[in-house]
UniProtKB/TrEMBL annotation:
Ranges annotated as DNA-binding: 39-58
Keywords: DNA-binding, Transcription, Transcription regulation
Protein name: TetR family transcriptional regulator
Domain named HTH tetR-type: residues: 16-76
Pfam families in UniProt: TetR_C_11, TetR_N
InterPro entries: Homeodomain-like_sf, HTH-type_TetR-like_transc_reg, HTH_TetR, Tet_transcr_reg_TetR-rel_C_sf, TetR_C
Secretion signal, residue range per the UniProt entry: none
Molecular functions (GO terms): DNA-binding transcription factor activity; transcription cis-regulatory region binding
Highest taxon of source: Bacteria
């Protein structure tokens, strides 16, 4: 495994427990203090792990954040299968809303997104995270095409992006409430646009 980047190893046993403890500590610190104040020594102290272990395995704050995002993508709930496109898109929107309004996850995402604007490695990790989540949910659009709910050639990934974009806008830009009605409305708008052929390639 010598060729692996720091933070990309996913072993079992004690090493897995160390990774879990360090990533939880990193998430807590990030949510509380933001990216600028994230410190590997502080994370090691919070996780009750030796500093040398953290420095050797993750190498840098950005390496740690990249692994945290990988872990978050791996731990995300699987997509819903409701049998209708609107039902699936509403489930997606509600999951995004739940994550963004969570007392821990919301500030954590805000901190990571802010860091990604000025740190290339964090931006790359964030892009991988969203790519993973979009690919997880895109099949619900393909299934809707197969059922005849949407026109052939609809770009499934663009439909999923259209669901979450208004929710992230409220979190990061407008500060407007992120309630259940907002989540449902985002899903309804994306579904209506998809039915109208807006996302046909």
């Amino acid at each position: 495994m010598d060729g692996d980047e720091p933070g990309t190893i996913r072993p079992g046993g004690r090493t897995a427990r160390v990774r879990t403890a360090v990533l939880r500590a990193a998430g807590d610190a990030l949510a509380e203090q933001g990216f600028d104040h994230l410190d590997l020594a502080d994370v090691a102290r919070r996780a009750d792990v030796g500093k040398t272990t953290v420095y050797r395995r993750w190498g840098s704050v950005t390496g740690l954040v990249a692994d945290l995002l990988t872990d978050m993508a791996e731990q995300s709930l699987p997509r819903a299968r409701t049998g209708s496109l609107l039902g699936d898109l509403k489930a997606n929107a509600r999951l995004v809303r739940k994550t963004l309004t969570d007392p821990r996850q919301g500030p954590l995402f805000t901190a990571v997104i802010a860091a990604a604007t000025c740190d290339a490695r964090t931006a790359e990790a964030l892009h991988r995270f969203y790519e993973t989540r979009i690919k997880e949910w895109a099949p619900c659009v393909d299934e809707a095409i197969d059922r005849g709910e949407l026109p052939a050639g609809t770009d499934a990934e663009e439909v999923i992006r259209a669901v979450s974009a208004p929710l992230y806008y409220r979190l990061l830009a407008s500060g407007d409430p992120l309630d259940a009605a907002t989540a449902d409305r985002a899903a309804e708008a994306a579904e209506a646009a998809a039915r109208a052929g807006v996302f046909v390639r």
